[in-house]
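Subject: for your reference before the review

Hello V.,

The reviewers asked for a structural picture of the protein, and I figured it would be easier to keep everything in one thread rather than splitting it across files. Below is the amino acid sequence we used in the manuscript, unchanged from the supplementary table.
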Amino acid sequence: MSSKVIVYSKETCPYCVMAKKLLAQKGVSDVTEIRIDLNPEERDKMIEKTGRMTVPQIFIGDVHVGGFDDLSALNRAGKLDDLLQHVL
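And here is what came back from the structure prediction:
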């Protein structure tokens, strides 16, 4: 895996922007963004990997976190920092 944090996203996605902003606030500077609106094959790969059709879909290391709501819930529960420690 080239990046430790991967975000599948689209250009017009406010939740994608919020997810990247939260990750940046947590000190994550190296995010690989995969734009499914520019590359339909990547959309198919995302659906195959996650079983979900919505963006963002966030991976931290090998862990599929889910979307922004999932990322935010991890942060509120105090578990996001622990997960990020393993990849930063």
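For the response letter, the relevant points are probably these. The chain has a mean pLDDT of 94. The longest strand covers residues 5-9.

Happy to draft the paragraph if you're swamped.

O.
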